[in-house]
């Protein structure tokens, strides 16, 4: 059922506030940001009509089978540690959030937002839902946020040592690039994840924003990066590699954009990941169809400029859509090259299990199309244990300067710290 709206922005927020009380809720929003190929569709899934059962070790196949049975919308996530289903790898570090590696559900109620209208699909009374949303108070972000403190899982010295060890592996010829992440956490965080999402969206609007609830686990995501999108037989991946801060003026912005565009190290990082993604897509796409319509594009966000490349291909006949995801998972921008060795070194040198961080949140349509982000610039919260976590990563190459990489991590953390109104305690 369709409804015309005079104030779409307010209705979207009211619908989310109406639905966030459910144990399962996924809100996807692109914040109308200029982005190559566009950002997320504006969607809100509320409640779980049915949850996809996962066969151990066969998560991708389980989702494919579930979708074939029901031919309807699915919402959910792929966790980074599904790498262990794709390759002979392991994940032995602590995970304070403890979300399932893969989770998908059919929503009880689905809101599909257009330019000035909304389509509501539901097993319940749609007219009643519409009226309830209209009378729901408009959520407003708090002025203070959480106001607590977070601690890095590793010390500054350990991070510097890790970068140097990775570079030794590069010299030995084991890898060319490795994305190393560190966790910032709080063990006794009394956080309102709904308020955090509002604050994060205001301070760091992003084209792949997501609020994702699975029972007592919450993800507030302000991701600028698309992992993969499928439309018909066409698949698109848009890795980000290359970051620089925004300037204090338009003139400084232009200088910084030019600096990023001409940074040999950042360009080399981006090129390596483009090649990796092309190889990933070649496993499921027709020969000769993989193209790079844009490379090294510079796009502005609230606090940083990012270097984004776009890779496209046409899927071979008869390939299940989840196989396209599986053969490219996890995304190269969060692993490194060659991918398998990079992931093995990540497990060796990182101190936290990534879980959903550097995984993907998104949706699958009844036709088998999909769109998934890269879960970065995100806070994850276990409300039962009051465990708050966000992770920050940086790509290490032979040209990396360890201290500069550390400072880049702190720059990337700024948006989350501001949203939380939190301080780092070293």
TrEMBL record:
InterPro entries: ADC_synthase, Anth_synth_I-like, Chorismate_C. Gene3D superfamilies: Anthranilate synthase (3.60.120.10). Residues 156-412 form the Chorismate-utilising enzyme C-terminal domain. SUPFAM superfamilies: ADC synthase (SSF56322). This is Anthranilate synthase component I family protein.
């Amino acid at each position: 059922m369709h409804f015309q709206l005079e104030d779409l922005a307010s209705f979207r927020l009211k619908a989310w506030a109406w639905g966030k009380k459910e144990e399962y809720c996924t809100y996807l929003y692109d914040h109308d940001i200029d982005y190559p190929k566009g950002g997320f569709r504006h969607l809100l899934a509320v409640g779980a009509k049915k949850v996809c059962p996962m066969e151990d070790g066969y998560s991708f196949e389980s989702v494919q089978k579930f979708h074939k049975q029901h031919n309807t919308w699915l919402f959910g996530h792929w966790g980074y540690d599904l790498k262990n289903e794709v390759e002979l790898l392991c994940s032995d570090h602590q995970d304070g959030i403890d979300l399932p590696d893969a989770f998908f559900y059919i929503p009880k109620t689905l809101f599909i937002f257009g330019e000035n209208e909304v389509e509501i699909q539901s097993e319940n009374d749609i007219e009643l839902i519409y009226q309830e949303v209209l009378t729901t108070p408009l959520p407003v972000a708090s002025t203070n946020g959480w106001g607590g403190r977070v601690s890095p899982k590793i010390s500054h010295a350990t991070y510097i040592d890790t970068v140097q060890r990775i570079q030794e592996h590069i010299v030995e010829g084991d890898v060319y690039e490795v994305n190393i992440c560190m966790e910032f956490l709080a063990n006794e965080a009394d956080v309102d994840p709904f308020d955090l999402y509002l604050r994060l969206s205001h301070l760091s609007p992003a084209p792949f924003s997501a609020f994702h609830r699975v029972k007592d686990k919450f993800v507030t995501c302000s991701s600028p990066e698309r992992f993969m999108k499928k439309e018909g037989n066409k698949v698109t991946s848009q890795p980000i590699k290359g970051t620089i801060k925004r300037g204090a003026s338009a003139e400084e912005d232009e200088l910084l954009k030019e600096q990023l565009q001409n940074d040999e190290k950042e360009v080399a990082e981006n090129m390596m990941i483009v090649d990796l993604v092309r190889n990933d897509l070649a496993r499921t796409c027709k020969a000769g169809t993989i193209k790079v319509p844009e490379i090294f594009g510079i796009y502005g966000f609230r606090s940083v400029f990012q270097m984004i490349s776009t890779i496209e291909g046409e899927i071979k006949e008869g390939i299940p859509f989840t196989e396209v995801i599986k053969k490219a998972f996890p995304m190269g921008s969060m692993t490194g090259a060659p991918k398998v060795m990079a992931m093995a070194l990540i497990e060796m040198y990182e101190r936290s299990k990534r879980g959903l961080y550097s995984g993907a949140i998104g949706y699958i349509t009844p036709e088998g199309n999909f769109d998934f982000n890269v879960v970065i610039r995100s806070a994850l919260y276990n409300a039962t244990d009051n465990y708050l976590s966000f992770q920050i990563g940086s790509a290490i190459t032979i040209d990396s300067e360890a201290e500069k990489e550390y400072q880049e991590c702190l720059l990337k953390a700024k948006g989350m710290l501001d949203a939380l109104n939190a301080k780092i305690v070293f």
